[in-house]
Amino acid sequence: TERPKATVNVQPAGHVFIRERVTLTCGIESGDDWNYEWYKNNNLLRDAQRKKYQISNVDQTHAGDYTCKGTQSTGRIYTHTSAAVTLTVSAVKVKPTITSNPEGAALTGNTVTLYCKLHQSAGWTFYWSKHTQSSENETITNVYTISSVSPSDGGQYRCRAGRGNPVYYTHYSDALWVNVTG
């Protein structure tokens, strides 16, 4: 019979930052009662023998190619080794860029859309702050819309992004002025 295939899934995907939490999951397409083996750069990880391999405080020593495979407790059935998944770890916190549409002044009653641009992998929640507010507004996408703007909506806006639990935050963007005119 054909040996089952193993696959590795990484959360957050691929590119992570120092101090983030990373979870690698070994998926096996059939059967139960697997014993798991994890490898980093083809070296067996002796402390990783479960379906999920979690790194709670990632640093650059964790970067590399990860694979897994499984054997059933009887030892008679074993999987193919999974394809390698590369984990890249960045030491530098990223800083998003904030832009607006329209650029420049907005007329009272019009809509202003702010964009928080982050050139990194997925899984981020975006946080928006205005210099006069003590709390942040949260969005799942990188877009923040102010409908029917009034002069009180004018001011400095910044954004940042976060992901994971505990949340890893990027730096704040530079401030963007939203000017509302009559």
Automatic annotation (TrEMBL):
InterPro entries the UniProt entry points to: Ig-like_dom, Ig-like_dom_sf, Ig-like_fold, Ig_Fc_receptor, Ig_sub, Ig_sub2
Molecular functions per Gene Ontology: transmembrane signaling receptor activity
Highest taxon of the lineage: Eukaryota
One of the GO biological process terms: immune response
GO cellular component terms, A-Z: external side of plasma membrane
Keywords of this entry: Disulfide bond, Signal
Residue span, Ig-like domain: 4-90, 96-161
Coiled-coil annotated residue ranges, if any: none
Membrane-traversing stretches: none
Protein name: Ig-like domain-containing protein
Naturally occurring in which organism (per UniProt): Pygocentrus nattereri (Red-bellied piranha)
